[in-house]
Amino acid sequence: MLRFCSLASGSSGNATLVEASSGTTRTRVLIDAGLGLRELGRRLARIGVAVAELDALFITHEHSDHIGCAPELAARHGIPLWASLGTLRAAEGRLDPATARTARDGEAVAVGDLQLLPFTVPHDAREPLQLRCTDGERDLGVLTDLGHVTPYVLSRLAGCDALLLECNHDPDLLAGSAYPLFLRRRIGGQHGHLNNAQAAQALAQLAHAALHTVLAAHLSERNNRPELAQAALAGALGCRPDDVRVATPLGAADWLDV
After folding, report:
1. Average pLDDT of every residue of the chain
2. Do the beta carbons of residue 28 and residue 49 sit within 8 Å?
3. Phi, psi for residue 120 in degrees, rounded to 5
4. What confidence category does residue 253 fall into, taking pLDDT thresholds of 50, 70 and 90?
5. How many domains does the chain have?
6. What residue numbers bound the domain in which 192 lies?
7. Measured between alpha carbons, how far is residue 167 from residues 77, 177, 215 in Å?
8. Nearest CA among 238, 138, 124, 101 for reference residue 188
9. Sheet holding 81-83, edge to edge
């Protein structure tokens, strides 16, 4: 059985827990830890998980809303921390070498009952990676923090049963926002963040009969609205907007099956 829970999503912090379980074993991997240690512990406890029960951390890139407390969490509890070499180097002063593990594009990472399949994305970080997670029967795609969707990204996520998909902004809201011009250009640029329409275009290419769960993620609190993201993704899927779930900065209280 494969399931996941968004503990936080947005520019204020990101963290997603993925769990694989069989009849006798259970594996839990936390993807990003963009919260404080105490708050992360509270959110894990809310879904019945203790920090000590984490088997690994996977950090997609070094931006503070993703790496957060991960180095301290890994060092304090002896949890292996996987990230690209670029990400590890960006965080070098905070890392315990005993817990750091290097992840590479296209090379599978085995953690208990889970296999993590990292792939590169275009984003303004040192060496960002996103993930496909599988227990051998079901597949979850995690895709946030990229400025545009490449054919390679689509190939890495083809056939997933569930997707956590960035819908960062609405272009009109971003253009009219109070953000300075340089920041608007960064967000909307080729190495920034996906807007609703870009996410919908990607989803239309990834949609298939077995794709049953789509979670819109990393929404900007200022430059997007949940109903806009839902409408865009629903158009790609041919479903009702209410059928598309939205991850929030406050996280969720329930698990989603893959």
Report:
1. 97
2. yes
3. -75, 150
4. confident
5. 1
6. 2-257
7. 33, 17, 10
8. 124
9. 100-102, 81-83, 56-58, 26-31, 15-21, 2-8, 256-257
Show the beta-strand stretches assigned E in the chain.
2-8, 15-21, 26-31, 56-58, 81-83, 100-102, 109-111, 114-120, 129-134, 139-143, 162-166, 213-217, 245-246, 256-257
Please tell me the chain's helix, strand, coil percentages from 3-state DSSP, rounded to the nearest 5.
Answer: 30, 25, 45
Residues 6+ apart with CB under 8 A from 145: 60, 61, 63, 66, 121, 123, 125, 128, 130, 166, 193, 218
pTM above 0.90, yes or no: yes
Chain centroid, CA 222 distance in Å: 20
Q: Which residue shows structure tokens 């993590």? A: 116
Q: How far is CA 115 from CA 20, 30, 100, in A?
A: 10, 13, 18
DSSP string for residues in 71-93: HHHHHHHT--EEE-HHHHHHTGG
**Per-residue pLDDT tens over the stretch 198-240:** 999 999 999 999 999 999 999 999 999 999 999 999 999 999 9
Other CB atoms within a 10 A radius of the CB of residue 101 amount to 15
CATH number at residue 123: 3.60.15.10
Beta carbons of 15 and 7 less than 8 angstroms apart: yes
Which residues, 6+ apart, have CB-to-CB distance to 43 below 8 Å?
Answer: 7, 8, 15, 35, 251
Residue type, 254: D
User: Can you say how many angstroms the Cα of residue 107 is from the centroid of all Cα atoms in its chain?
Assistant: 18
Closest CA to 224 of 242, 252, 198: 198
SS3 state at 206: helix
* Residue carrying structure tokens 């996280």: 251
Return the structure tokens found at 147: 């400025």
Q: What are phi and psi of 11, to 5 degrees?
A: -65, -15
Q: Which amino acid is at 217?
A: A
